[in-house]
Amino acid sequence: MPQRISPVDLPGVTPSRQQRSRETTLALLAAGAELLCTRGLAELSISELCAKIGATVGAFYSRFDSKEAYFNALLALTLRDGREQLLTPPPADPAARSDLDQRCRLLVRGIVLWMRQHKGVLRAALQRSEHGPNNWSGFKDLAQALSERATMVLLPAMRGTATAGRRAAATAAEKRTVAFGIQVVLGTLVNAILNDPGPLSIDDDEIADRLGACLLLLLRAGPDPTRPAAPRKSGAGRVRR
After folding, report:
1. For residue 5, which of 91, 75, 102 has the smallest C-alpha distance?
2. Burial category of 98 from C-beta neighbours within 10 Å (exposed 0-12, middle 13-18, buried 19 and up)
3. Which domain holds residue 17?
């Protein structure tokens, strides 16, 4: 859990005016994020969590109304950090390469690093959405914003030297191609976190390199924007008119 994020204004967390108390709150959150990397939310013990940082169970409940409120605070931290890491434009670097290959690799590496940092919380949220309260809506919103951000980053390199008329006609198709590419990247990483089927785990650096190359291939193999879209099917094989 990144130490640079202040927990003071998190929903469901009792605010504290004292620096030491705020540090204890942050330590509890950081400890829980670490423990969730090796166990599920149901197995996360409040007493073990408190013992890990030398706090009392009473100190926990003076800050969080319940275990659910505690986990919701962890989710809020994870989402906040995701917005900061994934949606904030990086500083301009005149010396950096700006080709599509490099942009894909940098974008995917940032996504992998964020998901790796929060893998325990993300896995717990995914498991919880399957069997209980749905905590995944905030992550869906983040994914949508990430897709829009990726479009801004990748589109200039995708268009290259296309004519102005071709660019205007291709915009919708290109945006959909980028969105699908991000969907593939996120889906692969979610599967790695939730099921870890191999051969690569979320902790393998190779997964970022391979997914970056995969995104590049998906963008280059996108549908021809001048080709009419195929009719969508509705129901059991019927074509929607």
Report:
1. 75
2. exposed
3. 1-75
Do 117 and 2 form a contact (C-beta atoms < 8 A)? yes
pLDDT at 133: 55
Q: Are residues 65 and 181 in the same domain?
A: no
Amino acid 236: pLDDT = 47
Distance (Å, whole) CA 241 – CA 232 = 9
- pTM equals 0.81
Sign of CA dihedral 19, 25, 31, 37: negative
Distance of alpha carbon 187 from alpha carbon 143, whole angstroms: 11
DSSP β-bridge partners for residue 238: 234
- DSSP designation for 234: E
Name the range with the highest mean pLDDT among 14-28, 60-74, 227-241: 60-74
Which of 75, 100, 125 is the last residue before a domain boundary? 75
Q: Interior CA angle at 23 toward 20 and 29, to 5°? A: 150
